[in-house]
Structures are given as C-alpha cells and as structure tokens.
Design goal:
- It is a single chain.
- By secondary structure, the chain is mainly α.
- Helices cover about 65% and strands about 10% of the residues.
- Strand 2 and strand 3 form a beta hairpin.
- The longest helix is centred in the first third of the chain and has 22 residues.
Length: about 140
C-alpha cells in the first residue's frame, strides 16, 4: 500500500520545512525578520560577495523568479546591492551592504548553534553516512 507519509520525498520535505520554520523562529528570537531563504543568500554572499545573480540561483538550487524575489526583498531591507556588470549590462553582481554584513555577523553564531542542535545525538559516523546517502539520492535524481 502506498502511503505518502512513508515516502522518502515526503519525509525529506517535511524535515526541510521543519528546519526552515525552526530557523526562522531562531532568527525572530534574535529580533531579525530573516527567512531561511533570505539567510541562504546572505550567507552565500558572506563567502562569495559580488557573485552574479545566476550563480546565487544555481548554487542555492532556486529558479530565476524565486531568486529575483528574494533579492528584491533583501534590497528593500538594504542588505544587498545589485550592480550591473561592466561587460554585460544584462548581468548583475550582488554585494552585501554594510547593514547586510552586520546582520550576517550577528546571525552567524545563532545559525551555528542551531545547526549544532540539529546534529545533537548523532555520531560523526552517522552524519557522514547520512551525507553520503543524500548525495546518492541527489545523484539518482
């Protein structure tokens, strides 16, 4: 018998949504109205500031409209700035503003603590196996 609740995709999807909801609550508790999707962009720029909008979308596995929407919201919050590429005006490089850098630096400790709690009670070997399984699932897709 097929039960959606017992499928791999449902379990992974539910886990991802639970993680996103919990991370959002974590940031709210720190007085930051940052969604996990916005956080992923800010964290990506923290490590690779000035990358193209398409690179952000590709690395975070987001489609163009979703990425544009997230960037629009971050720009309204004054966390990022988009600058046209000198060689191709259709392309935009995305940079953190000082407010964006400050926000990322304030939230990194909370994000690290949160992810450490996610891994609590799971051995290094179990985590390594879990990561390998996820990689295989992605390869199978």
């Amino acid at each position: 018998m097929y039960r959606i609740e017992e499928t791999l995709d449902h379990l992974i999807s539910t886990t991802v949504q639970n993680i996103k909801n919990a991370l959002f609550r974590e940031f709210k508790a720190k007085n930051h109205n940052i969604t996990p999707e916005q956080w992923s962009v800010l964290a990506k720029l923290h490590h690779e500031d000035g990358i193209y909008q398409k690179q952000i979308a590709d690395s975070l596995v987001k489609d163009k409209p979703t990425t544009t929407r997230i960037l629009d919201l971050l720009e309204k919050k004054n966390f990022i700035i988009r600058i046209c590429d000198d060689k191709d005006r259709r392309k935009f490089r995305v940079y953190l503003t000082q407010d964006g850098k400050n926000t990322v630096n304030e939230l990194i400790p909370a994000a690290i603590e949160f992810h450490n709690r996610l891994k609590s009670g799971i051995s290094s070997e179990e985590l390594e196996n879990f990561y390998e399984i996820l990689k295989k699932i992605n390869k199978n897709i």
